[in-house]
């Protein structure tokens, strides 16, 4: 994978983008692509590239062009079906000078126009500059595995893999976008095109945006998740699950093969100890000859640790296994750096261990890994989907005393809590019961719990929010949404909110790329996704048994102990990491009255109240009574303060690596 | 014990522990769980506080949302319970 950046002038009155600025921009992305740097420039455009060489190590440099040198590309990602597409394009008469997938994109665009993106199986963020028509085409893969940010002002467009590259231009203003902050403190993530920075947009997943001289910009969606209408599934067809699981196995194996073998460097595998990464690793092992390398995070805290299962699988695969132990101190120490990478506030510390893991992978000289990301969303693995089912069951008979007992099956800790909490806390699950058909029924408990954290917002922020037009998530739903069954609807909401804005970015690309490691995700292969989305809901979630069809596929391949274990949500120690006896000074500083006041986003008194409460509980050894929402509030405020500190008050984007461009095509200077 | 005094005590406890700010008050009739002011862990804190502050014990069947989901419900339920158990 790589980093891309560029500036396009949509009017003659701007001077050509300066080389120095392109250099500064791409320098901020050198963690994404440390191997080689290049740029293309003409009077109207400057596009730059930081390369992490994985395919075609000798001739895959970028920017790269078509035969007559009118189309120029800077590309981050992998098109896994590039070999097949290349053969197809050769029949159309296209001639290739490299063996890279990048060149396939250029010719595919030349041949099919923007329809080409529908043909790609892969992950990408790409910019194509058509110098003849003065047209810029930006595109992002189906589910948004790779990031792409855009800023427009005064007939000029900046684009980049990360916002920090756009901020490398000192003329770009840096301010917090209150709307995105509101979204994060509801959905856990900003919803594209919103970003936490005013005036910076994120291109939506599965979307193309076109800028052209003297024309209005165009945005087209080429893909979004869709599910069959629910009446198709009225007849249960369990007899077909045998066939369906065989098909899933074939597709998943093919997806894994593409990701293991289409690389000119060795590909390793993450191993979490859960079903998804175990199955993917097993498949990776099956398709690859020779040594197989696996990498895991262990936790010092038994509560989060999954070592037993990781070792069980590493032994089954006979892999050369590497692991690293993550401590609370690590979480606190690395947290400020994490926020520089996530470029958004987060409500959990879970990205930190993934940052440490990609470092481990990089230390062993690996540039790419396969992981199990995506199975929980597309095959219904999350507790939220089971919770939705139990809540609907309870809603049929809200006064039942027996039905709420199912929540204890979902969340076993409830069974351990004193009986008195149960009778009352059932009310928590009844939120949204007044309208079972409302689009967000599945997400009401999570979203209202999270939104209650807005009580920490300062009065200024709250009144600012009242005057701003808030984008409604309802407006982003496809027309067919209301005809889908409840599981598909919950899956869709999960995909467009948490998955896209947090899981695949803050826990995915950003943490992998922080140490120049490319993630490859067999479950996010477009054939696998489309197959999963057509499955009857009962194949994914039968009763309360999640990812049922996947467990069938895994049977006999990975140890039963891993298939049958209760799903453990991936978590890391939260607030407690920051308030130990020897805690980091920056935490006190970020929560200080002075900085809270000066940044102006959080109410001083309320936030200090939270800080003192958490501190007191930890000092009294009473940490387990710090509730989920208090934890989220603490991490959310800390990360927001750090973000303002690093990107608004100061500018941590700028680096001075003195990088050298090895690929230079400069039409302005005639090089 | 006076119903209004109970209401005040409960309201202060909620302001301090769930709103983290003594100056903010929750409206008497607002659903504490429904609006996310209190989460499931919070119900434990609230009940423990009431039990120790008033030196009482709640039976399982008393611990239902109808008695605890708003300040109004808590003060009404508690004033009956406290007056009944008074010597």
Question: How would you describe this structure to a colleague?
Answer:
The complex is a heterodimer of chains A (671) and B (87). With 671 residues, chain A is an alpha/beta fold. Helices cover 41% and strands 15% of the residues of chain A. In chain A, the strands form 3 sheets. Chain A has a 7-stranded mixed β-sheet with strand order 10-8-9-1-3-2-18. A 6-stranded antiparallel β-sheet of chain A has the order 4-5-6-7-11-12, covered by helices on one side. Chain A has a 5-stranded parallel β-sheet with strand order 15-14-13-16-17, sandwiched between helices. Chain A starts with a strand and ends in a 5-residue tail after the last strand. The relative contact order of chain A is 0.13. The model of chain A has no long low-confidence stretch (mean pLDDT 93). Chain B starts with a helix and ends with a helix. Chain B has 87 residues and is mainly alpha-helical. Chain B contains 4 helices and no strands. The longest helix of chain B has 15 residues. The mean pLDDT of chain B is 86. Classes of the chains: A alpha/beta (671), B mainly alpha (87). The interface between A and B is medium-sized, with 35 and 29 residues.
List keywords for this structure.
heterodimer, A: 671 residues, alpha/beta, seven-stranded mixed beta sheet, six-stranded antiparallel beta sheet, 27 helices, 41% helix, globular, B: 87 residues
What topology emerges from the helices and strands here?
The complex is a heterodimer of chains A (671) and B (87).
Chain A: E1 2-9, H1 19-27, E2 36-41, E3 45-51, E4 64-65, E5 71-79, H2 82-91, H3 101-112, E6 122-130, E7 135-140, E8 149-153, E9 156-160, H4 163-167, H5 178-187, E10 200-202, E11 207-212, E12 218-221, H6 241-261, E13 267-270, H7 275-287, E14 293-299, H8 307-317, E15 320-326, H9 328-342, H10 351-363, E16 368-370, H11 375-378, H12 383-395, H13 406-410, H14 412-416, H15 419-429, H16 444-451, H17 459-467, H18 486-503, H19 505-513, E17 518-520, H20 526-534, H21 537-540, H22 548-554, H23 560-564, H24 585-590, H25 593-599, H26 604-619, H27 628-649, E18 663-666
Parallel strand pairs in A: 2-18, 13-14, 13-16, 14-15, 16-17
Antiparallel strand pairs in A: 1-3, 1-9, 2-3, 4-5, 5-6, 6-7, 7-11, 8-9, 8-10, 11-12
Helix pairs in contact in A: 2-3, 5-16, 6-7, 6-20, 6-22, 9-10, 9-27, 10-19, 12-18, 18-19, 26-27
Chain B: H1 3-17, H2 40-53, H3 65-68, H4 71-85
Helix pairs in contact in B: 1-4
